[in-house]
Amino acid sequence: MSPYFVAITFINLFTLLMLSICIMTNTVISRSQKTSFLLTNAMIFVICVMEVLTIMLDGSPAKYRWIHILSNYLGFSLTPLVFLFLGNALIPEKKLKWLLGIWVLYSGWIIISLAAGKGHSIFYIDGANRYHRAKGFILYVIFYAFGLTYFFIENVRLSLKFWRMNSIILILTFTFVMVGTTIQIINPQIQVTWLCVVISVVIYYIYHDTLFQQLDIQTYLMNYNSFQKWLKSQRKDAVIVIAEIDNFSKLKLNYNRSRLDGIVVSISRNFNDYFKKFGRCYRIGSEEFCAVIHDTSLDYDELCRNFFVGFVKLNFDRDGMPLISLGHARLSPNADINQVLSCADIKKRDFIRERISYLY
User: Fold this and answer.
1) Reported pTM
2) Whole-angstrom Cα distance, residue 240 to residue 290?
3) What is the pLDDT of residue 93?
4) Which end of the chain is more exposed for a tag (fewer CB within 10 A), N or C?
5) Phi, psi at 314, each rounded to 5°
6) 83 CB burial (10 A radius; 0-12, 13-18, 19+)
7) 164-190: buried (b, 16+ CB within 10 Å) or exposed (e) per residue?
8) In the chain, what are the helix, strand and coil shares in percent, each to the nearest 5?
């Protein structure tokens, strides 16, 4: 075993340990994301240890052959799963059951093929306890590519979900993982796969931690602090569209916390689905949402009217769903935001008087 490989493994394991501690103490990202990141770390940790074992046991006495086979099996079976879990960590609250089903079939096939003989499996260990690639190695490459493809798709979805924020980081990190891990498939002597993966996991974790500090965790819209930062950095004119949930104080008295949260999340999704085509969306209060749109030439009365009509159609059959009122105002750099919001409130009152007529 080369000193180079020992050093890389040491770096990988201690980096994973420190990262796991950071993840466990994180209070920003969701529980499901923490679980996915921690499981990803655990699998990489196991694979790194198994990789060391496979090198140590290659050519060792025959009594260690079963350990040699087991360590290779764990490495080959867990590797595609790492990318599935890492991809799952990118999108909050996403289910992974169908992907796990595919992995179970793949892992089961490795066991069956090992029992069937060296002509069918991904690898085989000969009588001298030496590792060799077998004819079925192409299936490992296929599942490896499947995991990377899923990982890439989740990168794209994450970028689109959060308005392409720093999307270049996601794409560059994915490219780094793909190139670094493919090198070892082509040339097994260049053992940089897990160094690349560990570095990428750290980058993704930093990206998520930074991203979620800018989000309202309940609705996944940008939070009020992000809105304030945008105001300070504003460079050109924009229009803000304000949406407010009607009679929110009464809703808090009449509904339990779970029901009220469900209403807020549902309305925020409707608002974001419509206005994200025009600009970035924020939650600026418990019952208020805001869209910042830089195209000042749009007909904003028409825009608000169309959203309201669509909102009513989507939620017509939902019992207890409140109405919303919308207003808008032009916002120039360094303008007094309170005066701008007051102008939006005036538009909001006009909207309330006229909104019933929009439905006929």
Assistant:
1) 0.77
2) 6
3) 54
4) C
5) -70, -35
6) buried
7) ebeeebbeebbeebbebbbebeeeeee
8) 65, 10, 25
Chain centroid, CA 1 distance in Å: 37
Q: What is the pLDDT of residues 127-166, one digit of tens each?
A: 888 888 888 888 888 888 888 888 888 878 877 776 556 6
Q: Which residues contact 217 (CB under 8 A, 6 or more apart)?
A: 28, 30
**Cα-based angle 337, 343, 344 (whole degrees, multiple of 5):** 90
Type of residue found at 251: L
Spatial contact of 20 and 38, defined as CB atoms under 8 Å apart: yes
Amino acid 36: pLDDT: 84
Average pLDDT, the chain: 85
Tell me the residue ranges of DSSP E strands in the chain.
123-125, 131-133, 238-245, 280-283, 288-293, 324-331
pLDDT digits (tens, 9 = 90+) for 56-71: 888 888 888 888 888 9
Measured distance CA(176)–CA(86) in Å, rounded: 15
CA distance 345 to 352: 10
* Nearest-angstrom CA–CA distance, 160 and 269: 14
* Residues 165, 167, 170: CA angle, nearest 5 degrees: 130
Q: Report how far residue 241's alpha carbon sits from residue 344's, in angstroms, rounded to the nearest whole number.
A: 8
Rounded to an integer, the average pLDDT of 245-264 is 87
d(CA 13, CA 31): 23
